[in-house]
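Researcher: Hi, I'm a grad student and pretty new to this. My advisor asked me to get structures for two proteins we've been looking at. I'm not sure of the right format, so I'll just paste the first sequence and hope you can take it from there.
Model: That works fine. Here's the first sequence with its C-alpha cells right after it:
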Amino acid sequence: MPPHIERMLLAYAKAHVQDAHWIEAYLKFRKAVAEEFERLLCAGAAAIDLPEVDDGELDPVEQGSAAA
C-alpha cells in the first residue's frame, strides 16, 4: 500500500474513532500478508536453486492426470 494512502487512512481513523478499529485491523492484516508473501518468496527462491530429483515414479496426483 502506498505510504500516502496509509497516512490518509490513519488520519481518517483519528478523526472517526468509530471506524478506527477496523482501519487499524485492515492495516495490520495488510502488513502481515506482505511479510508472509516476502517470506514465501525468499523460501521459494531457495527451493528453486535446488535440483529436481526424478525417481521415475508418478505420485498419486500425477497418476490421476496421466490416466486422463
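Researcher: Oh nice, that was easy. Here's the second one.
Model: And its structure:
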Amino acid sequence: MNMILSLLQISLAVSSPPDTYQEVASHKNMYTELSKTVHAYCRCRNKERAWSTPPKACLGFRGLSRRLSPRVTISILSHLPSAASRLRETICQYAAMTDVVGAILVQWNNNKLKAPSIDNCANLARSNGIVVETLTYEQNTLLNRYTGTQAMGPLTMLQDDDVRYSEHAVRAFVAVAALFPKSIVGVNGRMAVAYESPEATAKYFHPDKAPGRYLNDSRYRIDGKNTSKYLYNMATGTTSILQRSLIERFMDVPQASKDYISSHKPTCEDITLHFLASNMTRQPPIWFRLHHDDGGELDKLGDGDGLEMHLHVINWTDLRARCVDRVASDFGQFPLVQTNCRLDLHRSQLRHMDPAVW
C-alpha cells in the first residue's frame, strides 16, 4: 500500500510548477492528506470483498504516470439567462487553472434564448491554453449533458451551473478519477434500494441533513457490526467526474429511459447514469467529501444569487423513489453496487483517517 501512496503522489504532480512557495506548500499538504485518505479508502474497500471487488489501484495497480495524467474537461450545463454572471464567474475561476483544466465546455440548454456572452473569461482561458466552447441545442433536455463528447477530453467533470470548485478540489477530483477510472466520482452520495416485491415502491434516500444515510440492522453489516451509516450506491448529478468513454455510452441506455428523461421532472438522468456505470464496471461510485472552502453549491455556501439549477417539485423524494423502480425495470436488473467507503477531505473529519468505517 505504501507503493500506492507514493505512486499516487507522483501522478498528482503537475505539468508546470505553481507560481509561489505558498502554492507549492498548499498543494503538497493537500496531496499528502489525499494520499492518506486514499489509503483509508482502500482499506475500507478491502473489507467489502464479500460483495464488491476492490479497485485495481487498491491491489497494487501502478496508476497513471505523470506523463499520462490527463487534464480535465469541465462541462457546465446551464439554462438560466439570469444566472449569466454566475456562469461567467465560474468560467473565469476555472480559466486560471492552467495545468489541471484542459477545456471548458458550456452546454446551453435553452432553445428559446441566446446563450450569454462569456467572451472575457473565454479569452482568459484561451490565453492560458484552455479550449472554450459553447454548445446550443434544438431541444431542452438533460440528455444534452451527454452529447458533445467530441469536445471533451478523456476525463470530464459534468456539473451544473450552481456549483463551483477551487483549484485544490479540481486537482483532487482529477487525481482520484484517474486512479479509479471505473468509478464515477461525485460529491453527494445517495442510497437507492429496489424491493423484490413487484408492487412495492423503491426507496430513494435524499434527506437534507444526512445525505446517503440509511440504517437497516438486518440487511447491511460488515464484520457483524452495523456500518450502514453512510451506505450509498450512487451520487447526485450536480457534479460527476468520469471517463469520456462512459459518457459516450450513455446514449446506449434503454430507449424508455431516454424518453423519460426528455419528458419528465425529475428526469432521474443521474440515476440512469449510475445504473449504466455499475452495469458496465461492477464498481460503486466514489463519494468525495470536500471542505466547504473548496467549493460546492453556491447558494448553500452563501456565494450564489438565489437561483437554483433545479425546480422545486412537490414529493421530490417519492418521485425519485419511483424512478429507481422504473430504471430498474428498463434495465431488467438492479446493478447498483453498494459501499460504505468514502474519500473524505472535509477538515472536521480528517482526524478519522479511516473515513468510511465508524
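Researcher: Is there anything I should tell my advisor about the second?
Model: You could mention this: The domain at 2-349 is CATH 3.90.550.10 (Spore Coat Polysaccharide Biosynthesis Protein SpsA; Chain A).
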